[in-house]
Amino acid sequence: MRPARALIDLQALRHNYRLAREVSRAKALAVVKADAYGHGAVRCAQALEGEADGFAVACIEEALQLREAGIRAPILLLEGFFEADELALIEQHELWCVVHALWQVEAIERTQLRKPLRTPLNIWLKLDSGMHRVGLHPADYQAAYRRLLATGKVAKIVLMSHFARADELDCPRSEEQLAVFEQARQGLAAEVSLRNSPAVLGWPQLFKQQQASDWVRPGIMLYGATPFEGEQAVAARLQPVMTLESKIISVRELPAGEPVGYGARFVTERPTRVGVVAMGYADGYPRHAPTGTPLLVDGQPSRLLGRVSMDMLCVDLGDLPAAGLGSRVELWGKNVLASEVASRAGTIPYQLFCNLRRVPLLYSGD
Ligand SMILES: Cc1ncc(COP(=O)(O)O)c(C=O)c1O
Predict the structure, then answer these.
(1) Cβ distance 242 to 333 under 8 Å?
(2) Model pLDDT for residues 88-144, shown as the tens digit of each residue
(3) Which DSSP helix (H) or strand (E) runs through 154?
(4) Distance from the CA of 302 to the center of ligand 1, in angstroms?
(5) What are the residue numbers of the active site?
(6) Is the Cβ atom of 126 under 6 angstroms away from ligand 1?
(7) CB distance 218 to ligand 1 below 6 Å
(8) Domains of the chain, earliest start first
(9) Is the CB of 78 under 6 A from ligand 1?
(10) Distance CA 296, CA 306 (A)
(11) Where are the alpha helices (DSSP H) in 185-233?
């Protein structure tokens, strides 16, 4: 069997969830959209269900997958509904629903849900406080709130917004967004949900006034990766959940001056032992990772050599005489941080995890 695989440590996932709750002092929706950032949404939700206040996904298809697997906890649809006829399913499966646009307010006003409503809707009303992606304009926010309550179809409204630059710890934009949010929600007595992972980890000073009834929405931190470029004290307490590993399937002894891999992007400078690993960009390892990207061979630091192929990549065994056929290679995980590999490859750990495919996910710590 091909030795490429991703080990998923559910104990670490629970540790990270607890850290999110501890440092935020709020309720926490575990963000498990995009198949739990590649970690397997059903298994991750099952591992957290005993303690999570709820889950967040991107769309109803992802929510129904969790419901079909028996997850009964609250599930929030982060983009709400895309078409009005999803409202019947939202009601039937008791999903919580973001409303981020006026057309969605109108759709709720017009839609005929069961009468009397078995489960009135739980709406998270999203404000565009400055990210300018989705969310209601501040000038429309209070009117939308009142219109939703007036429908009689809504049990509860949570006031919500999203930060664009909370991962930049010296950037004033989050503070500005918070001020826009506070202004827009003046006089509305409702629970609040603002913080993603970087805001939970990096901006405690902005949320001194927050209530225990407020909600945070941690995603990447649950999976143990930092959202920040550099080191950060609270992020250092995260435990990586995924270890991407494989084995060496071939060894080459090359003299100096020999090219390695497609495009001859690496040429040996001295006699070099090169190990070939069963892992490539078709598994989600980034093709743009350059020579020198760190990895471990049998627990020893080593580096990537040359271009990553579809199914294989090459590593330097020059300083590892004991390593050879069958040696275990950690591409990222507990020792080689995904954020470090991502940064070398010009991307972010979010994308590394979401790009994972073909490799089996093997779980521990249930
Ligand atoms: C609305 C919303 N909340 C929370 C999150 C989680 O963000 P993070 O993974 O940075 O914690 C996302 C992720 O994209 C999101 O779109």
Answers:
(1) yes
(2) 999 999 999 999 999 999 999 998 766 556 679 999 999 999 999 999 999 999 999
(3) strand 154-160
(4) 33
(5) 33, 262
(6) no
(7) yes
(8) 10-227 (3.20.20.10), 242-364 (2.40.37.10)
(9) yes
(10) 16
(11) 197-202
